[in-house]
Design a protein that fits this description.
70 residues; alpha+beta; 34% helix; elongated; binds zinc ion
């Protein structure tokens, strides 16, 4: 019984690890780009605060990768 519980805990921790990539977007409404680096040149021109979000969410918002990225 204890072994089963331990096994379930292991399965839980290995399968629920979120594989999402974090990206940074400019908080202003006019931004259409996302950035992998918080220190990116494209973000330095951002006049409002930088928002950290997931890559999936950024793409879901119709954002595209910044031209300064590799
Ligand atoms: Zn960038």
């Amino acid at each position: 019984m204890k072994y089963t519980t331990l096994l379930l805990i292991i399965i839980f921790f290995t399968s629920f690890r979120p594989p999402e990539t974090k990206v940074y977007i400019c908080g202003s409404t006019g931004s259409k780009r996302y950035h992998f680096k918080e220190t990116c040149r494209g973000l330095s021109s951002c006049r409002s605060e930088t928002v950290k979000t997931s890559l999936k969410q950024a793409q879901g918002l119709g954002l595209t990768l910044c031209g300064w990225e590799d």
